[in-house]
Structures are given as structure tokens and as C-alpha cells.
Write a structure and sequence with these properties.
The structure is a homodimer. With about 325 residues, the first copy, chain A, is an alpha/beta fold. Chain A contains ten helices and eleven strands. Chain A is about 30% helix and about 15% strand. In chain A, helix 1 packs parallel to helix 10 and helix 4 crosses helix 6. At the A-B interface, helix 4 and helix 5 of A face helix 4 and helix 5 of B.
Chain lengths: ~325, ~325
């Protein structure tokens, strides 16, 4: 079926009635199949296999099995799980679009929230409050300021560009390393870093980049923030560094395994703050995703280039 | 004893050996009596009664009882407890200096930390982490952004001036009300406020200013922040508003009673974040206070105007 004909679209999201209505309304004559969010190991839904477009994140094997599929609008920025697929296949090329830039504001605000929570002792004050336990003055000498810190931003995408803007009034010395920066540049920057904010995708270059040796290059007072993908860091080495006090803290929105298993060391590592991959969350998140999809649907029907088309070569 | 002679100084602070040495060193020929921080109801220390200057916050009755006392360098910004004293007394006028402006950076950072913690759900994520409990996605639709909020800053001192600077990149609509603003101005601003930050001292004008009626003027989505003095707000009315959901949240660095009693309603009020009067804390807080005192000591000895001399008429 050609892109300009009435599309058959699988919607792989858990939506409420108003959101379904908005999609029906915005999608004009398209045939929408509301299938809900699939689990990772679900077998392909037969209704999905009939579709030529999808909105949401199908398990990769579903894509292989759908002969008419021409476009998948992911509801995420990350797309590493689709890297192994043959999208230029014989049955017809599949275009993949992600939500690049979509989460910059919420994630950047969550970065600042997490860092300030550690610096201003909220990670201790909130549990004290749960016990109605007043400590007060003895906490004060343990508190730190963000003002004047040396910050290294790893990744030069929309998130870290926004983090840099939010940091401006704090008068930090900010070093920005694009993902293309050499590991030698990174290694030179780490010992001069009080706060490292990593916002890079999962690629062969970033996977395991923060191994034990590289983590050890950060000074003792440093705080390590990861809002990209959990694969960036050796989590055992990170837990060791936090437990031994060789690293002052970590704010982790992402982990290698999500959900993080109940017995995982990072749950209890001192001065770690785990935000459970909520960094991009906002009350109107799904509504904004729907508008993004409808905008790309118009482009798809017009045969125009998609917004945020994925480039596997670049890795984003 | 005249100010330019060797001073006898009571130090009412809990200091470590290095801090005592720095004071001795910086104070030249002064006779220093290290008495530690007194409790509120302690009887006057006889060594205090001999002194002509003090560094720290003596119980008010001690000041009345010390005939030679000419200068008290408080270690706080607040000085409401000294308002009833006769400082222009027959025995010789007592000058009082506070630490106005001293806490602007740490308190402003704590304000941002607290507000972002509520908006970015850290008040729920941190207790979940303590239980190694993953919730993840269902939290996302409950999260809010600071960007674009309508902010009212009550109090135009160093703290709120710094808060305004830190808010700049968030693109908030910021209304600034000096403490001298009329209650009519305040009442007009409240219904248009998503975030109220109060940083005003305890004065007859501010005491009880946020009564039940005034709190009710804030919209349902508003967050109330108080980093001045607990006397500003009717705490029962505030707890009612939080419990009933008529107010979205509160960040309280100060409360009417400190320590807050274990059974107090605010400990458990939903979406309240209590920071136990730590907002001004930093690792080098005491060292900075000592430098501030030594600077004023030089002025005192030279008979020059003191830095941050208290003006009871203005109330700051």
C-alpha cells in the first residue's frame, strides 16, 4: 500500500478514551488498531502484521514479521533494540522515527533536581521526614553548593544543551564534550570534573565507556549523572566507587536492567539517587507524543521526510 | 571599656580546634572566652557577663544582664527574639549585627532543590528507593515542569534576588513583591501564582500574614515555599490545604516550632517537603561566619559602622 492511501496503523500504547479520540480525529481516514503497549516477549499480534504503520515501540521481531510495514513512530528517543533489523528489506523499506529532542526540558529539569537534591541534602531530609525525625543543624556542614562547580557535559544533544542553559546562573565552569570527542579528551576532562552529566545514546562507542578505570579518573567529590542509557557504565564499578567513598554521588535515571531488580546493589549504594527512568515524564507527555505522531503522519502521507528519522549510521 | 582597647569577647559557638585557632589568630590581642552554643533557657554564664562583645546568639536575658556589652555579632539573619530588649540602655548602647545576605546562595539553591524535587517527583522516588521498589512509568504523568510557571517572590532581600537569578533560564513569569508591598497587592497576585516563595523576616507585618483566607487565594496547582520564618503562616490552615488537595505542595525550611514536634501534622501532610532549617547550610559555613565576624571586629575596634548592623525600625 502506498503511503498516500488510507493507512492501517497499529497503536501500541496504553491510551485513555480522550487520547484515542484525538488520534482518530487527527488521523483522518486511517484505520487505527489500538493494541495497547506490548510486553517485550509477546508474540506478534495478527492485527499488527496487517498494518503499514505503527505508533509505539513494537518488539523487534514483530517488525521482521510485518510484510506491509513502512513506518514506525517510536515513542522513545532510544532505538538501540532495533539496530539489528534489516529495514532496507526486500518487502519494502521501513522508516523509523524517534522522539529526538522531545524530552529535553523534563530531563534537564530532572538532572538539576537530582543534583541539587544531593548537594542540598534532600536525599537525607526526605527519609528523615518519613520518620518525623528532626536532625537540623548537624546536616548543615554536609551540604554543598552547585555554584562554581566544574561541570562536564558528555553528549551535545538537546538534553545537555538545555542542562547548560539551566546551569548558566550558577556560574559553573562548563566543558561540553560532543559524543564524537575522543576518549583521550574525556580522560583529560574527568580529573577536573565536579559534576559529570552523561546524556548519550547506546552505541558501540558509548557501551561500557565508563568502565572501572574511567570512573576512577573522577575526583572524590564528583557526582556522576546518567540520563542516557544504562549501558554507558559498569554498574559494579560504580557501586564500588560509591560504597568506598571514592565518588561523592550519582544520579541515575537509567540502569542496565529496567526495572532494576530488587536485590541490585545500586538500590542501596550510598549517595546514589535512582529516578527509575522517569526523567522525561510530564503530565501532558502522551498528548504531546500524539501531536508529534500526527505531525509525522501528515509527512508520511505526503511522502515527505519524517521529523526525527533515525539514522543508524550516526546512532541517533 | 572603649571599643579600641583589647576586647573581651564571648564566643557562643561550638567550634573545632582549627576554628578556635583562626579566631585567636584573627582577633589579635582580644581575650576570647569559648563558651559553646548556649541552650535557650540557660542562665547567664558568668564569663559572658564580663565581656564587651559576643559572637553567636546569646539568650536575650543574658544581654540584659551584661553591663559592659557593646556589640553582639549574631550568627543568624533572624533577630526577632532580640526585638524587646533595651539596647539604647543607660549602661551603654549595644550594637547588634546579623548576617544579612550571608545565606543567599545556599538558601536560593535549597529553594530550587525543593521546588524541583516536588515537580520532578523526587519526594516519591526517594522513599521508593529506600524500599528498593520500582514503579517507573506510572509516575511520569504525575510529573510537572518548572518552565513557564507564574512565580511570586515575597520579599526582596538577597535570597529572593538570587532565586530570581536562578529562575531566569526557566522562562517563568516572575512577580516580585517587596516586603513593603500592600496586602492588597499580595492578594491580587496570589490567584495568578503557581509558585510562591516567601523569604521575609519575622515582623509584626509578616506574622500570620498567610492566614487561612490568604492561603485559600492560591490556586489548586500552587506550591508554597517558606524560607523566612515559620511565624508567616497559619500551619493548621496550611496542613488543611495540603491534606484536602486545595494546595499542590509546600517546601518549608522553617516552622513555628523548631525542632518540629514529632506529632506535628506538617510531618505527614501530603506533598509537604520539610528541610529542617538547613537551607543556609554549607560545608564552610562556620569558617565563613568567622571571617565575617573578624571583618566586623576590625570595624568595631576602629569605631566604624558595622557591616549588617540591625535596624529594628526596618525589621532587618
Amino acid at each position: 500500500m502506498s503511503p498516500d492511501a488510507g493507512a492501517r496503523i497499529a497503536v501500541l500504547l496504553d491510551l485513555d478514551a480522550a487520547q484515542e479520540a484525538r488520534l482518530r480525529d487527527g488521523a483522518g481516514g486511517a484505520a487505527l488498531a489500538f493494541l495497547g503497549a506490548p510486553t517485550e516477549d509477546a508474540p506478534p499480534d495478527p492485527r499488527f502484521l496487517d498494518c503499514d504503520a505503527a505508533f509505539g515501540n513494537p518488539p523487534p521481531c514483530w517488525i521482521d514479521a510485518a510484510p506491509d510495514l513502512r513506518w514506525v513512530q517510536l515513542e522513545s528517543v532510544g532505538f538501540g533494540e532495533y539496530a539489528g533489523l534489516d529495514l532496507d528489506r526486500q518487502e519494502g523499506r521501513i522508516r523509523l522515527a524517534n522522539l529526538a529532542g522531545f524530552f529535553a526540558e523534563p530531563v534537564a529539569e530532572s538532572v538539576l533536581a537530582g543534583v541539587l537534591a544531593l548537594y542540598r541534602a534532600l536525599d537525607r531530609l526526605i527519609p528523615l521526614q518519613a520518620n518525623a525525625e528532626w536532625v537540623g543543624d548537624p546536616i548543615r556542614p554536609t551540604m554543598r553548593l552547585l555554584a562554581g562547580r566544574r561541570v562536564t557535559l558528555l553528549g551535545d544533544g538537546a538534553i545537555n544543551r538545555r542542562v547548560a542553559e539551566l546551569l548558566a546562573p550558577f556560574g559553573c565552569a562548563v566543558a561540553r564534550l560532543a559524543r564524537a570527542a575522543s576518549t583521550a579528551d574525556l580522560d583529560a576532562a574527568l580529573p577536573q570534573t565536579d559534576l559529570l552529566v552523561a546524556a548519550v545514546p547506546d552505541t558501540p562507542q558509548t557501551r561500557g565507556l565508563f568502565d572501572r578505570d574511567r570512573l576512577a579518573r573522577l575526583p572524590k567529590q564528583a557526582v556522576f549523572v546518567n540520563v542516557g542509557r544504562g549501558s554507558l557504565v559498569d554498574e559494579d564499578a560504580l557501586a564500588d566507587a560509591l560504597e568506598s567513598g571514592r565518588l561523592a554521588g550519582a544520579v541515575l535515571d537509567v540502569t542496565e536492567a529496567e526495572p532494576l531488580p530488587p536485590g541490585h546493589r545500586l538500590w542501596r549504594a550510598p549517595n546514589a539517587l535512582l529516578t527509575q527512568h522517569t526523567g522525561g515524564g510530564t503530565a501532558d507527555e502522551m498528548d504531546r507524543k500524539i501531536e508529534f505522531f500526527l505531525d509525522n503522519l501528515a509527512r508520511y502521507r505526503a511522502g515527505a521526510p519524517l521529523r526525527s528519522a533515525v539514522d543508524f549510521e550516526r546512532g541517533y
